[in-house]
Amino acid sequence: MQEELYEAYHFIFEQELLEEINKMGTPITISEGEHLINIGDYVKMMPLLLEGAIKILREDKNGGELLLYFLERGDTCAMTLSCCVGQTKSEIRAVAERDTRLIVIPIGKMEEWTARYKSWRNFVFESYHARLTEMLDTIDTIAFLNMDQRLMKYLQDKAKINQSEIVNNTHQQIAYDLHTSRVVISRLLKKLELDGQIKLQRNNIEILNL
Amino acid sequence: MQEELYEAYHFIFEQELLEEINKMGTPITISEGEHLINIGDYVKMMPLLLEGAIKILREDKNGGELLLYFLERGDTCAMTLSCCVGQTKSEIRAVAERDTRLIVIPIGKMEEWTARYKSWRNFVFESYHARLTEMLDTIDTIAFLNMDQRLMKYLQDKAKINQSEIVNNTHQQIAYDLHTSRVVISRLLKKLELDGQIKLQRNNIEILNL
DNA sequence: CTGCAACAGTAACAAGAGTTACACTAAAAC
DNA sequence: GTTTTAGTGTAACTCTTGTTACTGTTGCAG
Q1: Which class would CATH give B146-207?
Q2: What is the DSSP secondary structure assignment for residue A90, as one 8-state letter?
Q3: Residue ranges, CATH 2.60.120.10, chain A
Q4: Is the pTM of this model over 0.90?
């Protein structure tokens, strides 16, 4: 039994299921920036995160992007669950936020485990619940907040996910995630710095009010 | 066995489950504009729509609203499913878009049926899938479209849901659903009329390009 | 050391959306 | 019929965000 698997999931799954996951699953490592899945890809595997973080993005027709949310240890991708049922293509893009280890499970196991293990059913339902909640949060953010508030929230989320008050990002990268332009981000960051909320350096933003 | 239940769900559920739904469920009628559930309410029942339409709204702290999506016959509320697991409060508001008939099921049955009926599991998963997809669509709309495009899409969706090319709404009501102001809606509607996409009358918008 | 490329700062302007204010009109109430 | 109210049309202005263009700065490659 992989130690990491046990550590991250033994509160969630019963022993028997843990062992089955260990047997059927394949451990994978992806490094920062690598694409785990793209829009339009067929979903053949279901991921269980052990360590690291994944960011989930939505894309429009013109190549514009929008950050939806992050996945962390103990999370899985609800869109994947969802796609397994319908055998449909992925609606989102998943990119490693930092170096990440995960276990992938062949989707054939899903239905079997759903019928057999109560802990699995609960996990799946709770994943759906968590993802729906995060989607609602995303909608709140883009519908009800101004860009400066969205930016500050983004920086705080990012700091939390990476467990560091320093965000190593160019203004352009932030602009992509928030679906706006670099100039806008530079402008607002400067304003946040004058407000004393952050400190700016090249490739490097320090968040002061975590 | 209620005829409507059979009609709407016999393709989805096996006979035995249909009979159990019929036995355990309570038929309810709500009229247009009535609130089925509000934000913060505890969710004690799960709805299965038989006829009509429900609109699902999100709210911000200042009382501002935003339309998320509509539910129709054969749909259920994924937020409800979701809440049943976590025993949490509702994150959304549900309002009857027109007179609606539905069956409510005590949430205690949910877990039992999930373990027992494959068709129920599939239904629940497909509901989650459908709702996640609609949430993505909502996000696309508010993140990637301008207000005039959102407005046109809103009118088309509304026409489709109510099976009529006439939308009976005041500009103010539309403004609430799209989380903007009446003046903005009036302005854009007038523009759409000049473009030949709609025809305006009091309390009444005819959609020309369905 | 030089030159290039990526990153950041900023100004000036354009476009979209929100706000305020007021006039007009149809429908409902009296 | 007259009054009242809800709904609509529009102008003028502000604020936020997006766009274009140009400057300066850092760091790396040659």
Answers
A1: mainly alpha
A2: P
A3: 2-142
A4: yes
